[in-house]
Amino acid sequence: MKLLTAIPVHNEEKYLEEVLRQVLRHADDVLVVDDGSKDRTPELLKGFPEVRVIRHPTNLGYGAGLRTAFGAALDGGYDALVTLDCDGQHEPALIPEVAAKLAEADMVSGSRYLQVFDPSQRPPEERRRINVEVTRWLNECLGLNLTDAFCGFKAYNRRALECFEVTDLGYAMPLPIWVQAVQHGLRIVETPVPLIYLDESRAFGGSLDDSTYRLNHYRQVFSDALKAAGLEVAGGCRG
């Protein structure tokens, strides 16, 4: 299986070098999508000549970074894509394990709530509350059985990538992707990954830093995605 591992980054000078060193131990073909970083990220990336870099001239958003990664995997003739974040919250050693689960699915999604790896690790309460609520929407409206709506540690086979159109360039990007996955009948599995929070102060930016605004934004994006897909949602949906 020809596998690409992609990492979207924006101003990740704090974690970039250590994350890349770890990723390169477990992945042969690595892409970093630099979404308009203004810190030392571009300079630090020069120290990793074995890593391919695609740079957005300006910051377009988390979803835009993943859209570029999806396109690179398809254009490069890859059979599969693994994505993970660059904030130290994902364990690169699990890349082979996550990718291997594509033998039974089109889309593998990491879950930080399937298994407790470290009882001392707890998510910020506001983020956990929103994740629980959005995960409920996905399960009730799409007939899924997920435990984590927003984990960025995922794997996709080529069939899945060919189905997706990234319609939200920001942090709500996963919601239309979940809808499209169901729309196209993709096989989805979750796999346990550790819950790691190294920096609880990280912000979403702008209005999204307000949790009420963020949840309402997610609700609107999800509703729009359902309408665009023409899905007849499962009974009891209260998204």
Automatic annotation (TrEMBL):
Protein name: Glycosyltransferase family 2 protein
Stretches assigned to coiled coil: none
InterPro entries xrefs: Glyco_trans_2-like, Glycosyltransferase_2, Nucleotide-diphossugar_trans
Transmembrane segments: none
Residues annotated as domain Glycosyltransferase 2-like: 7-163
Signal peptide boundaries: none
